[in-house]
Write a structure and sequence with these properties.
CATH topology of the largest domain: Mitochondrial carrier fold
Largest sheet: none
Subcellular location: Mitochondrion inner membrane
Keywords: Calcium, Membrane, Mitochondrion, Mitochondrion inner membrane, Repeat, Transmembrane, Transmembrane helix, Transport
Shape: elongated
Organism: Rhodnius neglectus
Number of helices: 12
Low-confidence stretches: 303-307
CATH class of the largest domain: Mainly Alpha
Mean pLDDT: 80
GO biological process, one term: malate-aspartate shuttle
Protein name: Putative mitochondrial solute carrier protein
Number of strands: 0
Oligomer: single chain
Length: 350
């Protein structure tokens, strides 16, 4: 049963991850190019003044499709990546919940951190190919750079270049994101504990702001380690400390926060769309594996009349009456009728 449940969650997470990644991919491309832009190692290298300037220049020089450069390998990798992250987070949260279905904040952080660590096996190869395709459009050589050629150049071990920086980014991100998302869901739920699609989206959006912004320095280092340096650019040995030191010395501390706005604008809506899609799919395609339904997924339908307040005291009427309440109330509402109701029978005096 546990295996089937994990397969079920993996499938839903794959679909949700693909939808979320496609929705915000142009912003991701802008973020990558802004982070790769160096200001201290190459004269005349600054191509973009800001994220908006980068967006306009991509449209002007590469066309609208340029905003989706590298999307295909992204989709091929993001499905298992997001699926693993969501599945591991849900699995560990379920194991760490107490008997009443609650989970302590430290355990939430542990679950999120484990989810972030588990995805790196897919994330790093996916992102190094994506980043090199995204940056390739900056070079006006006329040579087409394709995913297969990037894979051939990198080789198996090359696909995990910058993996340590990827861990440094993804573990804190998920450790922040999932607990904040869970608490925002709880705070935005209605009085019956139900979350509408809008509250799910807002929860995901808000949770992405601190998670995405606080790990930007690690994302900048990872990007620099994974791109191919052009002539005249600073090169890095592949070590996090070497990259961090050179970025700080040559460009100053502000360089670690390059692309923060684009990263937040990309990550927040991406995870909002991903988590919204994931939760909606769980509701629409719910399968009971003997556990609990997702929090906030059960909607309480309030009674339209007062029938439920006038319950019969006669024992042989209780079962049928309770089952008929929603049907009778629906008839009353639809046709404007007023059906007879049970009343408490007076006890005969002895």
């Amino acid at each position: 049963i546990q295996v089937l449940e994990n397969v079920y969650r993996f499938a839903l997470g794959s679909i949700a991850g693909g939808v979320g990644a496609t929705a915000v991919y142009p912003i991701d491309l802008v973020k990558t190019r802004m982070q790769n832009q160096r200001t201290g190692s190459f004269i005349g290298e600054v191509m973009y003044r800001n994220s908006w300037d980068c967006f306009k220049k991509v449209i002007r020089h590469e066309g609208p499709l340029g905003l989706y450069r590298g999307l295909l390998p992204q989709l091929m990798g993001v499905a298992p990546e997001k699926a693993i992250k969501l599945t591991v987070n849900d699995f560990i949260r379920d194991k760490l919940m107490d008997n009443s279905g609650n989970i302590r904040l430290p355990y939430e952080i542990v679950a999120g951190g484990c989810a972030g660590a588990s995805q790196v096996i897919f994330t790093n190869p996916l992102e190094i190919v994506k980043i090199r395709l995204q940056v390739a459009g900056e070079i006006a050589t006329g040579r087409k750079v394709r995913a297969l050629s990037v894979l051939k150049d990198l080789g198996l071990f090359g696909l995990y270049k910058g993996a340590r920086a990827c861990f440094l980014r993804d573990i804190p991100f998920s450790a922040i994101y999932f607990p904040v998302y869970a608490h925002m869901k709880s705070n935005l739920a209605d009085e019956d504990g139900y979350n509408s699609p809008m509250t799910l989206f807002i929860s995901g959006l808000i949770a992405g702001v601190p998670a995405a912004s606080l790990v930007t320095p690690a994302d900048v280092i990872k990007t620099r380690l994974q791109v191919v340096a052009r002539e005249g650019q600073t090169t890095y040995t592949g070590d996090i400390s070497d990259a961090a030191r050179k970025i700080y010395v040559e460009e100053g501390p502000r360089a670690f926060w390059k692309g923060t706005a684009a990263r937040v604008l990309r990550s927040s809506p991406q995870f909002a769309v991903t988590l919204l899609t994931y939760e909606i799919l769980q509701r629409a395609l719910y399968v009971d594996f003997g556990g609990t339904r997702p929090t906030g997924s059960e909607q309480h339908v309030p009674s339209a009349g007062v029938m439920d307040k006038e319950k019969p005291t006669t024992p042989d009427h209780v079962g049928g009456y309770q089952a008929a309440i929603p049907i009778l109330e629906g008839i009353e509402t639809k046709f404007g009728l007023c059906l007879p109701k049970f009343r408490i029978a007076s006890q005969p005096q002895v």
